[in-house]
Write a structure and sequence with these properties.
Layout: H1 2-26
Length: 27
């Protein structure tokens, strides 16, 4: 159960990083 909870968190972090990259590119 713990691992399952950790996986989505990692995915969210990756999505956040991707969003930050796109924001930098727009600039």
């Amino acid at each position: 159960k713990k691992a399952a909870k950790k996986k989505p968190a990692k995915k969210a972090a990756k999505k956040k990083a991707a969003k930050r990259k796109t924001a930098k590119r727009k600039r």
